[in-house]
Amino acid sequence: MAGSNRHDNTAAREVAALAWAGRQAEVVAAADTALAAAGTGATERFELLELRAESLVALGDLARADADAEALKALARRERNVAMTARAQHCAALVQMRGGDAAAALKTARRAVAAARRSGDRRVEARALTRLAEAQFRLHTLVRSKQAMTTARRAVDLAEALGDKVLQGRALWCLQAACNDLGRGAEADRAGAQSLVLARATGDLFGQATALNSLTFNESDVAAGLRLLKRALSLFRAAGFVERQAMVTSNLAGQYVELGLYRQAKRLEAAAIALERQTGARHGLAGSLWKLAQLEATLGHADAARALAVEAAAQTAALGGTQYRGWPDWIAAHLATQAGRPAWRRHATSSAQPAR
């Protein structure tokens, strides 16, 4: 996690400060320079690779981030360092999640937790538990969401015991997400509010943005939801997370659907898709394609809707899982009733689960 105080080496500390300030491209450049320098020790090399991988994920360069994750694993093996192994697996799980491979991310996150426990490093364990909770809730099944809630609570308790408020806030966000999946809206909102308080207190831009985005899930006031999402988008920009900006942009589109402003929603969804293609966010891309297909159908653009649905179906099949299984029926219903536009159609368009 960029910005934590685990870095003891000068170059790594300087690069971590850049990451915390949201200067992700500068992180990559500075890490490139430091890693190319002679005499970089194994510990500092590991930390620089870890920071660079996280920034590459933020920028959407998943191929390079994956290469850094593999380099971290190799360095951990060479050093025979179990804590490094846990951190390398933690990084790899992040890359897999952002690339849309939730099942692989779950397996990798489990390995991270197991290695962290063997290491005896409680901070590394708390970080691994937080990543595991995210991997679990992103599978969107009842069993996994229940597991995510339990895992997130353990991460929250451990981070609190360690006094790591940044990590505690991010673990609370995972708890919020799991509770939302389980229909426990009030508990989710409490966790989200606590996460936001901690993120603001610590200056965690990324944490603030994730909390604000998720607090819109149970918000019935569309105007309030728009304000929260616009603030989240601004914070993700400040934090330098391009791939997360796509997610919030798609959620903004959903708010405009609620207002019946379909053309504005279409422009935003198209912008989200462009960012998702740029950053390799396959899971987000599948969802955005389905939502744009529904919007095109609502606007009476049957050919465009069908073309988008074909691409969305292909993306969904490649991802596996069941999250988007109801969408083809919704598209078919829209196309079958374009002229009349019955009242249920708008509900179907806006009923998609917000992106996280």
Describe the protein's architecture and organization.
The protein has 356 residues and is mainly alpha-helical. The protein has a domain at 252-356. Helices cover 79% and strands 0% of the residues. α4 (62-79) runs antiparallel to α5.
Fraction in helix:
over 70%
Radius of gyration: 20 Å
Total strands: the figure is 0
Main beta sheet strand tally, sense and closure = none
Q: What average pLDDT do the residues reach?
A: 91
List the helices and strands and how they pair.
Elements: H1 10-20, H2 24-36, H3 42-59, H4 62-79, H5 82-98, H6 102-119, H7 122-137, H8 142-162, H9 165-181, H10 185-202, H11 205-214, H12 222-239, H13 242-258, H14 262-279, H15 282-298, H16 302-319, H17 327-336, H18 343-350
Quick recap of the structure?
It contains 18 helices and no strands. With 356 residues, it is mainly α.
